[in-house]
Fold each of these.
Amino acid sequence: MDDNHPTAPKKAFVKSYGCQMNVYDATRMEELLAAEGYVTSETAEDADLVIFNTCHIREKAAEKIYSELGKLRVLKTEKQMRGGEMKIAVAGCVAQAEGAQILKREKIVDLVFGPQTYHRLPDMLKENRRTGRPVIETEFPAEDKFDALIAKAPRKSTQVAAFLTIQEGCDKFCSFCVVPYTRGAEFSRIPRQIIDEAQKLADQGVVELTLLGQNVNAYRGDNSSLAALVAELSKIESIKRLRYTTSHPRDMSDDLIEAHATNGKLMPYLHLPVQSGSDAILKAMNRGHDAEHYLRLIERVRATRPDMAISGDFIVGFPGETEADFDATLAIVREVGYASAYSFKYSERPGTPAAERDDQVPEEVKSERLYRLQALLNQQLQNFNAACVDQTLPVLIEKQGRNAGQMIGRSPYLQSVHADLPETSLGKIVLLKITKTMTNSLTGEYPGDSA
Ligand code: 5AD
Ligand code: SF4
């Protein structure tokens, strides 16, 4: 059995749920573990260490983790009976929010740590081994996590497109949202550190960077704005594309809007959540702006960059939402015309002000509204994709497709594009003529191909 082989490297399986920042964090955990001699495992079954990097944003996401843990209980016991081990860690936002409660519900867990402490993972593993007891780390330590990460493990990427966290946390306290409690207060990394990380990624072949932050456009590292940071990053020759997500309508500054006109590396895609089209609901959500403010922003962005693809997040069934409020959401969607969108039923989150309200919307009403909203958004997505047919778009080729000879890339508007291309196209930006649309992707042809 592999379990007992004295020289076999230990295997770690890291699974991420939720947002892109969790994906970034999970990659950093893998790097930390690689520095400790672990290799990455593709499945939990044969791993010596399983880490669930969890999401607390909605109840469903948070509950999923307990069913995953339940599945592992048998595996862990079996493995222990064979003399092997399987350490189980719950990381991320559920860990931050629930802490020791996780251990009460699921005794097989060895480590619980939040998004601000994962750089201590190797130490936590050592402590667990030394004491034989579960380790919980959910403080917001004063030290800079990012400094510690740089010191402990180098950034590695074999990808064409990579995420880079530049800002974390949120001070906005929308009344439905757990993020200010799980990710903590707004914090921006300093530009020097970000530029170094971007340069390392570029040296490893990364061509596209997506700058991540819960409020990315509120970025203020060393008093630099996001627009100034983007300008600096675009000086890195081999980085050809820059994106950023997620933005808040209150932080969409003039210089950032302007950068979309002047900086050719900044992609014409903006994820700008509005959540609702009703002023009364926006106020109750504590969003700090009304529908009109949002619409004027979109207008200005499109005046700067007419082909800008707009993406958004929506919540239906926020407490007190009437049919008229919901109609206002449909109306703003019609007015904007989205290229992509994420929409959710409101989910009561413990500790948030909206969860305390006694005018919660019944589940059936939420479901029915979500259905109608998604039908509209889906229609818009199809329209946006259909409008790309016959256009020639620059597509960054990111990976091989499932079929032989097929490659998959992304358009400037973040659409997935399939095309028959040689493997040597990997990492290149290829001009492809879009020939048709599928549900979630486009098909492109290299114009030179057509015989
Ligand atoms: N219920 C439903 N959706 C939520 N979101 C955040 N909190 C909740 C909640 N309590 C959605 C918002 C946000 C996205 C990341 O998740 O739309 O923009
Ligand atoms: Fe949550 Fe609002 Fe902050 Fe976004 S801006 S992370 S929705 S509190």
Amino acid sequence: MRDTDGFTWWKHGVIYQIYPRSFYDANGDGVGDLPGITEKLDYLSWLGVDALWISPVNTSPMFDFGYDISDYRAIDPVFGTQEDFDRLLAGAHRRGIAIIMDLVINHTSHLHPWFIESRSSRHSPKRDWYIWHDGKKRKPPNNWMAAFGGRAWEWDGATGQYYQHSFLKEQPDLNWRNPAVRDAVFGDIRYWLDRGVDGFRLDAVIWFVKDDRFRSNPCGWGPNAPRPYDLQKHVYDQNRPETHDVLRDLRRLLDKYDSRMMVGETYENSPRGAKIAASYLGTGTDELHLAFDFSLLFSKYGARRFRQCLARWYEAVPEAAWPSIVLNNHDQPRSFARWCRGRHGTERARLLAALLLTARGTPFLYYGEEIGMDNGAVSRRQIQDPLGKKYWPFHRGRDPSRTPMQWTSGPNAGFSEGVPWLPVAASYREVNVEGQMKDPGSLLHFYRRLVSLRRERAALSRGSFRLAGEDPDILAFYREEGSGRLLVALNFSRGRRTMKLHDFIPGKVVLSSAGRKAGDFACTMELEPYEALIVEE
Ligand code: ISL
């Protein structure tokens, strides 16, 4: 891709996540598709993003909307054809945009031919491709739970054994200790690398390898306790050391190609998140290229908390590696719903935009974040997500952050001419791309300005990072590269605040969310309520 002097696309560019069912529906069946993404490439190029991560589009029976793959080499007809994929890839590359596929290899669909063969008999040559185990006195082999509810073991009456699944029972886990599994999956990965795909987002990395002695987990108290899954410490079914071997092998495979990358979903919702995510970066050059620390995403709002998250994350990332920054994805409530509802919502959203795009690390934007999309309201009848179906009303599932992209104020928010698979969020009349494109003062234009600033100023995309001050309401930091030094100050309070900085040198405004003109002089650091200010010294 577009690697030029000092610019590596996955380090210095901006990555945009698309949930393809919900982005744009080109054929009117109510479900977003690949031709839909291709149609919107000009928009994405106008926004200035460097890469798209597209949630899974491979053939799938859709028990988990694509996170259950039954053919790694094919495109699911609901999203289009192989040719549609090639057209998207070519169109993106023409515009200098890289394509990152979602690689779901912790498990397959139960309808993948490998699993069908594996479960056909205890003597099947593919039996050991999945994790089969005898029961203990008619009970599951140990106490492992599935992240999506119930036991991690499903009884197979026909062959008289249990198989293990970390998520739904329709998502049996592959046995990554088996070299034949590696060879087969690596073959499928090479298939996409040879077709020109630029990278992969690796699903569910922490679950890849399980304890070889199948020991039961000790009791514990996790983030969503008393959900049974969080009543144990996941010592033996997560983060096993052998997972690093798999990543090292994968890295060696990718390194045979030019400028390809992989970013891992290194999930953890606890203060240990940064350390765990960073561990999968290995030495910095031998495992993942990028990992996700979800601490900001799970954090409460505020300068102090966000500062602590950044500090921990940067401290954990190995010297030779590179961080990423993320506030949203398809599994969690949208940042707008978490932090920006009510008065001053848009101002708060601007602060988040500035945080995402000026901190050190590759920013990941989730579709709709750039216009301030809120969670949608999804009634019980409309629920699609298996998690919502299972846990309503305690957990309403992940549909609210997956509602259709809001393109216009017209019917179905301009997403589809059919009946959308999920209802559009009520905010679409005021919050949509068309309206915001016309308004230079909109959130969308603010994002676009920030994205282009990162390209103009190497200090923002590549520079060093140093926290400035300890103000409880202001998160401030210096970004420095060569002779360029920028001060970024984000006022998270609803009041006007003056920053006390012993080493502040008055400078020119580069960007302000509170109406100051670029080029004006900032002699003191008096910040307006919720102001994001970038000053060049
Ligand atoms: O989102 C979660 C709980 O609501 C997490 O536990 C999440 O399930 C975990 O991070 C793994 O997520 C990934 O793999 C799942 C898939 O459903 C998610 O969409 C994906 O991001 C199984 O493939």
Amino acid sequence: MILTDTHTHLYAEEFSSDRDLLISEAIEKGVQRFFLPNIDSSSVDGMNALTKKYPNNCFPMMGLHPCSVKENWKDELALVEKLSGEQKFAGVGEIGIDLYWDKTFVKEQEEVFRRQIKLANQHKLPIIIHSRESFEEIYNILLDSKKGSPCGIFHCFTGNADQAGRAIDLGFYLGIGGVVTFKNSGLDKTLAEIDLQHIVLETDAPYLAPVPFRGKRNQPAYIVKVAEKIALIKNITIEEVANITTENSRKIFAI
Ligand code: NI
């Protein structure tokens, strides 16, 4: 059984004391592939150091996170564009629009998102979308941005069945993590209506730990809890969940 974590911030300082231990424990449990989304200029070195250490397990991505779109966004975006020309990345992410934390730079967030979709098209890479309270805004931009294949992932998808259907119709996959284990999230009912062909797994570690670790630091091995929950919803084995979702991640990233 091979599980793939399509979205983890394993380079984050929350893991500085036990990162190697957590990675080896996860690999032992079958979690063998980690896709690392970038945040901004401050996360690049840590991400690259980690992928250099684990070239067969950790795959870096490049992008500017919407919550890091501030006064200096032009410099930050220029760095993303420069590095994308110099180094091979598995995808462009994480990118998108966040209307939950701060709406001061919403216009700039949209501009940066559009330009990073273009960047992904240039390099023929998938995009990893952060869409917190912004599904409709993102969807409208995707409709007229003509994202080429491979499309990418709606990271931490928590929308309804209608939104899931529209994202899938555009060619996107839905990233499902710890939220599916939360009581009253409703995501289990949405997932029951969606074919696993459109789903990938993610932790978003160190955030969003699944039950029974909710509220604690999330870590790579906990993705097993997400896979177990999906197996329960779909009434199949965890091995089947692992096989299908890892195969989906291979289609997206060609890795
Ligand atoms: Ni993230």
